[in-house]
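Narrative of activities, Objective 1.

The group set out to show that a structural description can be obtained from nothing but a protein's sequence at a throughput compatible with the screening campaign. Below is one input-output pair from the validation batch, recorded exactly as produced.
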Amino acid sequence: MKILLAVDGSDYTKRMISYLGAHRDLWVKGHAFTVLHVVLPVPHRAAAFAGLEIVRAYYEDDAGVVLDPVTAQLAEQGIKAEFVHKVGHPADEIASCAESGRFDLLVMGSHGVGALKNLVLGSVATKVLAKCAVPVLLVR
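Output recorded for this entry:
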């Protein structure tokens, strides 16, 4: 089974990875994992002012801040994965990647790093559920 793990570095990302590790008989053996992090785009005027190289470096740094700890946590859980980062709106990119990559399952935390953590479901998770035809497992 091809499984896409959408991560943002939040506590819910950590919980999701812990969940996979705790249920390794179900989720780890025989599955191919891809980890996706979506970096929000720099506004066009700011990007034009800063220049292409600075913007690219920003995207790489932002992805590293999220993906480096995720890489370590996955290694602790014994989960091998491919890592990808994209630039765009998280819900759009996650749903698009899940479908275009022909993943069998998308796993993500129910909430992210946004300010409205007390809602029943995070706004990105809600939008992904609305846009994505791939089955989604949300971990609280």
